[in-house]
Task: structure prediction
Amino acid sequence: MSKPLIVEHLTKSYGPGSLAVDDVSFEVKQGEFVAIIGPSGAGKSTILRCINRMVEPSDGRILFEGNDISHVQGKKLRDARRRIGMIFQHYNLVYRLTVMQNVMHGRLGYMSTMDGILNRYKEEDKEKALKLLNKVGLLEYMYKRASELSGGQKQRVGIVRALMQEPSLLLCDEPIASLDPNSSKVIMDLIYELTKEWNISCIVNLHQVHVAKEYATRIIGIRQGKLVFDGPPSELTNVMIEEIYNTSMENLMINGEVRAVG
Ligand SMILES: Nc1ncnc2c1ncn2[C@@H]1O[C@H](COP(=O)(O)OP(=O)(O)OP(=O)(O)O)[C@@H](O)[C@H]1O
Ligand SMILES: [Mg+2]
Result:
């Protein structure tokens, strides 16, 4: 199986004396579904942001589809970024625009600036958007303003927008942290099913350990910037969870589920 993403000795310091990410290495295979867990401030978001270069790595390398993208700029960075979809905790939609307009923004990386400004989208892209909106149950909402949607609906728009990029890698930073349990399940099921269907590799930052165990084929544990666990859910024992979160299981349990806040 090919490896579209190789992270080698990734290190990020936001300032002197503190390492947000400390010598982290891992690889992601095509179509793999990886969850990153760890306490608040462990460096999970920083890792995702370094991969898509929203944050500049201080050291180490990011190899994406065979290219070192650690420090690329301009066209090379844009080319890499359009193949890396991103889903955020707070959705990052343009709320004054409609659902359809938000979704079509996923195509901007493939268009000239002028075509983008004038909303000159290809027919085939619009058809694809409609198919995807139908798939996530939002077709009838296509002309609604994004601001009028519920949290779960907003995140479904975020998923469709990311998929419109035709990504080979999807990065999800706490995609369900602002949602109730029912919406969370809908969102996780959609992310899981759509990435499987399109053979997209997926990395999801999560603070619910039980969700990570339920969906991921592989879990990465981060503590104070360091990778302390990398393995299948079956190997993520309670002792290991306690080590990642540096606290006892008792403190991590809410209603019988491991809901480590992080
Ligand atoms: N833009 C920034 N400038 C300075 N320090 C930052 C910045 N972003 C993050 N940090 C610091 O880097 C460390 C890792 O933060 P990061 O947001 O990656 O953690 P996280 O695991 O995603 O946490 P959470 O679960 O709370 O989202 C923290 O100590 C944080 O304070
Ligand atoms: Mg975070």
Observations:
- The first strand starts at residue 5 and ends at 12.
- The mean pLDDT is 93.
- Residues 44-45, 173-174, 205 surround magnesium ion (ligand 2) (CB under 6 Å).
- Residues 89-166 form one domain.
